[in-house]
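Researcher: Good morning. I'm working through a list of sequences from a screen, and I'd like to move beyond sequence-only analysis. For each chain I'm collecting a predicted structure so we can compare shapes side by side. This is the next one on the list. No need for commentary yet; just the structure.
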Amino acid sequence: MDLSTTTAFLTGLLSRVPQFIQDTAYEKYVEYWPIFLIGFLISFFLTPILGHIALKFNITYIPQKGRGEKEFDNPLKALHEGITPSLGGLAITLPAFIAILVFFKMDSFTLPIVISLFVLMVGATLDDIFNLPARVQLIYQIVAAGIIAFSVLNISSIPLLNLDLSSLTYNFSIFGIEQSLALPGDIFLFFWILVCINAVKWTAGSPGIIEANSFVIFSLIFIIAMRDMSTFSSTVSILIAGGLLAFLIFAFPPQKIMTGSAGKSVYGFLICILAIVADAKISTTMMLLMLPLIDFIYVIIKRLLTHKPKNIWELMKISGPDHLHHQLMNLNVSRSQLVLIEMSATLFLGSFAILTTGALRYFTLIISFALGIAFIVYINIRASKKKEEQEKKESPESKYSY
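Model: Good morning. Structure tokens for this chain:
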């Protein structure tokens, strides 16, 4: 095949692409590309501005120390390098907040989401600036979760449990905004939101991980929302996905700016809400967040067994290099490889939410949960063995052993 024939063939093939898209189900997805582009461009230009503001006012993370000039954490779990500005998450969450206000009617459905999002954004931004205690962080998370629990957004069932979670329903209104308290479903929803917020938040221990994982999850939510014709979830999720892709340019190791609490305390909330709105199934959120959820549960159990805290406040104060990304680092995985590994695992497990429906979904939920546990346990065992071998090599007695 000569050059002219090859050129003609490629030209003809490319000319058919728009028609192919138009004639298939992919057309509805392509229609959202301007929103994705808007999110990308806003984040791309807003991120350096936020970084400059953070540096100017010393809203930064300092390795082996913490935020600004304050000790705030176990230095062993800080995996970033150099003085790094915070507040980057506002480049993602602020456009999403404004988009909801501009593009959607403020009613009994959207207003509680807007108020909860505002509470989280303000509280998390103040946390970046003033390094708020863990107790205060939990308080504004509780407020946000409580607002949603009393809203018209309800949970009717839990995967694998054939129970009516809205048997006791009390409807009322506040200032003309309809409220609905469905028990026991809203109690579960309240705690589920808190779990999602902190499970996602805890993945932010190494540069780029939370951004890469969240980009994958919001992209998957967009696909699910389009399939179930949820305009709200599809619009907000694709806007955030575009913003996160742009932010990854700055957050990918070596990191130039951090998401900070302004982002990491909000991503999990938005993932939880958008996934539920998209198809009204908790199982969807579980599969999308399978990796961070299992890591969250694993770390909680490990800290309970190791430190034996007397109450939840003592548990919240415990920190350390216990998470999956720390264990992968112990296996000499580079920061860039770490992002790609966790991103790939999130994509693999999260894809089950798209590929499965009906009874098959619950079977797949169990399989993906087992795979997630096996992966995290395997990495932790490998990391523990490597650490023991390293300590043995470095011990003073080792040079005298035979």
